[in-house]
Structures are given as structure tokens and as C-alpha cells.
Amino acid sequence: MRLRLLSRSIRTKFLAVGLLAVLALGLAELFETSSVQRLLRDQSRTHAVNIAKQAAFIAGPLIAFDSKSELGKALDLLRTDPDFAYAQVTDNSGKPLAAVGRVDADPCAAGREPTISNHGGVLHISMPVVDSGVTWGCLQIGMSQDSAERDVGVMKTIAVGASLLTVLTMVLAGVYLSRSIVSPMVRLANVAGRIGRGEWNATIDVHGRDEVGALADSFRTMVDELRRTTVSKTYVDDIVQSMADSLVVVDSRGTILMANHATHTLLDYDQGTLVGEPIQRITAVTEAASVIESEYIARDGRRIPVLVSTTAMRSEGNDLICLAQDLRERKRAEDELHVAKKKAEDANHAKSAFLANMSHEIRTPLNAVLGYTQLMLRDPALEKLGRDYLNIISRSGEHLLALLNDLLDMSKMEAGGMSAKVEPFDVAQLVADLSAMFALRASSKGLRFDVVEAPGTVRNVAGDQGKIRQVLINLLGNALKFTDRGRVKLELAVSPRNDGQLWLSARVEDTGVGIAASEQSQLFQPFTQTQSGMSLQAGTGLGLAISAQYARLMGGRITMSSEVGKGTTCVFEIPVQPLDPASAVRPAPNRSVVGILPGSTAPRVLIVDDEPDNRGWLNLLLTAVGFEVREAENGEAAVRECDRWRPQLVLMDLRMPVMDGLEATRRIRKNSSGTEPVILALTASAMDEDRHSVLQAGADELIVKPCREGDLLEKIRAHLGLAYKYADLAPEPELMSMDDAERSLKADALDNLPVEWADGMRRAIFNGDKDRVNELIANIPQRDAEFARALQRLADRYEYDALTELLDRARP
User: Fold this and answer.
1) pLDDT (tens digit per residue) in 232-258
2) What is the pTM assigned to this prediction?
3) Distance between CA atoms of 775 and 468, rounded to whole angstroms?
4) How far apart are CA 437 and CA 626, in angstroms?
5) Contacts of 233 (CB under 8 A, 6+ apart)
6) CA distances in angstroms from 205 to 189, 190, 201, 213, 216, listed in the order given
7) Burial (Cβ within 10 Å: 0-12, 13-18, ≥19) of residue 621
8) For 277, 282, 293, 594, which has the most beta carbons within 10 A of its beta carbon?
């Protein structure tokens, strides 16, 4: 009985110990397997996010400059990654701009935070594409998780198999050990009992080592059985050696205990030669750390970029497992992306340099044209016909300057270099100007044109009046262009909203042809026109794109709704700042400076410019007003003249040979003793030159050419504290109203002219041949002088639509 209890106790102990061992081993394997699985998934996820960030960084400037082909090439480079599935870049509205592979996700909208999701084994990453603080679109990238999941699956399979095999082995071993140990222990107990009872003849059948040998044989059998039934070291080695990534095991002293085949191949070592070597021979990573980018050192000293993950093996002391992925292919792809980015930046810099140079080359002669035109218009003896011709030249020059500014503005917006200027302006005056500008054109097409100012509109505000005006001109111009019957209406209001912010809201409605829903999403893209716009063969497709950019720049937006055949409504909204009545904008009087008030000494002015024509008109203007003037053709001559003559004012051009204006300004400031001259820097470039550097060199103000007479004289007055003598200018003759023009045409004026004349006029208008238009108008007989003047005034304003409409309505 006692032996039976002993047998049960030992068997129970063996079973309990066996179960505890199985549980502990299973938990250890589960923990280690879980860690490796998380590590594999984290590596795959980190790799995918890094690829997405790099692609988004490259895509920003390519979208900003509408480089779709380069964008497609940049995305195509992602194919070098074996886990790449697809990629797509969309604009702010969700329209795809470039794609590689089949995108298995809904389009994303710009402005969203980066998101990561898993769709059918593909890690889908969406993030905004940003450049210079501006969100241009959205990037979607899919990275296959198949390789990571395969590795995870292998780990799971190994873990499950090992656990099941361990449980089965422990059960069998427990039964076997119970039978092989309890019986010898019983026999030993019987022998011990017999010996204890005095049976000295009882012998222990060990023959010196029989019992110990039997116990040793049992342990050896158990060990052999465990080794035979446990996953072999060869099997594990096969898995490790077949891995594509490098795996190195390092002991606590930094010695390499094991390095797989991929490690030796990566570093060009013979198989097995790294074992026993210090870890510092191949890498500086010697401690457990998260996933980091580092370098492995090859046998020939080459440094190979790798993504390293180190994990401490606590069950084996302080041994480390170093898992490294070769990054050379990824780095090569990154280098190619960097080259593509560099090419895009170089192209942008070349474009900016070209535009800056062209701006200077165009503005320099235009400055002389407009300058001498202003001088000639000051001549009181100028005949009316000559004055009319000069006004035409002046308006044409201003028109050319406006076109140049539009092109430069578009370039600045693409480069992110455009900013809004906040200055006071009168909303009522803006409305009046727009009404006068478009009333005649609307009347010529037989349209009703309404301008409505909402009750309670705040009149005096601060904002970028020039950009606001340009946006409204573009919206009204489009409305009139695509409306043949009905009306065009502008509703404008300036009022506070619930948050207290003052908003300017303009609503432009028309009853024109409308815009198809399929075309509306592309309407605000540069160089994009609707089908109706292309059929009219009018415009470049830049107007609405510039307007939308202006609205965003000023913190607002433009929205549109349209229906084909019924018309279009555009709403333009921006925040503005209120002004107190004391700061109200009042129109400047229409006065011309004729001289300096008596009693003042004529200020000395030095004009510095390498262009004789530019110096010439400034000299004539300032001399006529009463200044004492001298000239210098470059910066070096200006420095010498300032030392000798001591002028009170220097008009300094910036771009000159021998010595430029910045260096000359610095030397004049350095050489000045006593009273320093006022220096007004002049530039023919409108690419927002570094105003800070100009002022830092010592200039008091920067003025962009062409200089308007009134603006230049006013700046001189403000800086020198002068008082001018003015002469009121006679108001220019008002343009003939539409009703007067119609009466002139209906007074049988056209009936007296040949049909060939009217056809020639239509062809000249269609071709934009202003010289031919003037020639045909000049051929009108003297008896129809009133009719000729009406046409000439419309032609001088480039109101070609009105001219055509008047001709068509006068002669069916």
C-alpha cells in the first residue's frame, strides 16, 4: 500500500512537472513568435510609409508645375520595390494626375491627414501632397503585404508545429519516465527495506554501478528520445540559411556566434568565416534598438546601407539577434527620385531666370516709351490729333504692361512666390469702375447689365484691391463672352459674419450657354477651356485659373454652379479688414505737377542708368518741373558724381555694367559725410527681387519700371518734403455712350459707305489688326465725322466686341 502511494505520488509529480514544462515552453514560443511577427509587420509598414513620404515630397513641385509626364516617371520608379502594388496622384478635386498599376481604393481628396489601411493584403497609404505650404493633391500608394505575411505565416506554422510536437513528446516522455523510474525506485525501496530489516544478504543488483548505470541509461534514453523527437538543429539552420535578409547572432562580448548565408553573400565573405569575429568588423550596431538605418562594412571596405533591427535574446544571456535588410536598391531608387527632383528644380529656376530677364528686357524699352509719352502729353501746345495718338500709345503700353504682369503673376503663383497686398480701397468706387467698364460691352450685345450693391455694404475696407478687381473682371468678362441673350448681373456685398470677420462677397450670374457637368471640375485648371470656349476660339484658359489662385491667396474661394442652356453663377468670397472713417480712401485729384513752389531751392537730382533713353525722359521731366539734374551711365560714375556734386536725390538703376546699383548704393552710403542723399532704386524686373537686400544696401525705396509720372513725382515729394505747384488737367472727352453710338450708326452713316468697307472692318477686327481698323476709320468721309469719332473711341479702348455688334445691328 505504501509502495502504491509512493508510485502515485511520483507519477503525479512527473505529470505535474511535465504539464508545467509544456505550458512554460508554449508561452515562451508564443511570445517569441509574436515578437518576430510584430517586428516583420512593423518593418513592412515602416518601409511602406517611408516610400509614400518620399513619393509625396517629389510629387509636390511636379504637380505645381503641371509636369504630368515627369510625375508619371517618378511614380514608375517605385516599381523597383518588390512589394510595390500601385500608386496614384490626384489633384485637389480627386482627379487622377498619374497612376502606376491598378489602384484598389477610392480616390482621396486633398487636405486630408495621412491615413493607412489594409485592403486585401495590400497596405494602402493616402497622404496629402504639399509644396511650399500649399496642398496640391493627394498621393495613394499600395504596398503588398504578401512577403511579410508569408514570413509571418511561416513563423506561425513553425510555432504551432513545435508546440504540438512538444506537447506530444512531453506526454509520451512522462508515461515512459513514469514506468522506467518508478519500478527501479520500488526495487530500490524493497532492497533498502530488506537491508533496513536486517536482510544483509539483500543485494542491490547494480554490480557496483548497476542502479546508477540504469538511472544513467534512463536519462540517456530520455535525452536521446527528446533529441530525436524535437525539431532538429539542421531544420532550423535550413530556415535561417534560406533567408534573403542578413541574420547575425552576437554574444554579450560582441562576438559573432552565427551568421547566415545571406550575410556572407552581402559582405562578400566566404561561408562561415565571420563566426568568432567581433561584430565591429561588419557594423557599429552593438546594442538592442528599434529599426534604424545603418551601414554594414563589406570585406573590401565598401559601406552597404541596411535597415537593421536588433533584438535581445534574454533566454540566452545577453545575446543579440541582428536582422538587416539590404537598402541598396531602395537607395538607388531614392537617388533617381532625387535626380528627377533636381531636374524639376533646375527647370523651374531656369524658367524664373528667363522670365526675370525677359521682364527686364521688355520693361526697359517700355519705360522709355511710356516716359516720353507722358512728357509729350504735358505739352500744352500739342494738337488734339497728336494728343489722341499719344493716348492710344499710352493705353497700348499699359495694356502690354498688364499682359506682362499677368504672365509674371502666373509664374509667381506656380513657384509659390505670390503674396497678397493689404491696402485701403473704396468698394463703391470699385463697383462704379466695373459698371462703367462693362456697361458698353453688355449693351453692344443687347444684354441687360445689372450691378447691385447690397444694403449695408461696408464701403471702406482694406485688402488687395488689384487682385480683387482682376478676379471680378475675369468673372464678368467670361459671363459677357458666353452670354448672347438675357442678362449679366453682379451682386456685391461687404458685411460681417457670425464670427465677426468682415467678408467681401461677389455673385456673378448670367443667362449664357452654361457649362456641362463633365467640364466643371477642370474649369479652374491653367490653359483649360470648355467646349463653348474652344468653339469661340477666345482666350487662353488662364483667366479662371489665375482668379482661383488669387482667391486662395487672399484666404477665400470661388465656387460655381451651372446648367447647360440656362446659365452660370460664380460666387467669389474673401475676408477683408474694416477701416475707420478717418482712413477712408478718397480719390486723388486729377492734377499735373508743373513746378516747385517759389521760395524753394531747386533740389539736385542724379539720374543713374545705362540706357540713354531712360535717363533722357527722366531728365526732361524733372528739369521741366524745376529740378537741377545730372546723369551717370553706371554705378562707378554715380559714386564719383556724388562725391563731387552732393545731390539730394539719386534715382539709381539696379542692373548696369561696370558697377551695379546695389554696389554703387553701398559705396555712396559709405562715402557720405554730412547730409546723405535720398536713394530711390529703380528696377525693370518684376520678379519680386530681394527688397530686403536693396534696402539693406542703403536704398530708401524700390520702384518698379515703367515709372508713372505722377507716382514718381509723389514719391520724390514725400522723401524730400517738397511742395508742388499743380495745374488742373482738362478731363478727357467721355466715351460716346452706347445710345449715342447707335444713333450715329442709325443716321444712315453706314448706308453711305461701301459694303467692302464694312467687310474690311469686320476682317480687321477679327484679326486684331488695329492699324487696319484705324486706316478704315480714317477713310470715312468728313460728313460722317461724328460716326468716325464714335468708332475711333471704341477702337482706342479695344472694344472689338462692341464694334462688331454695332456693325451687325446697324446693317442686318
Assistant:
1) 566 777 788 888 888 888 888 888 888
2) 0.41
3) 37
4) 37
5) none
6) 13, 12, 12, 11, 15
7) buried
8) 282
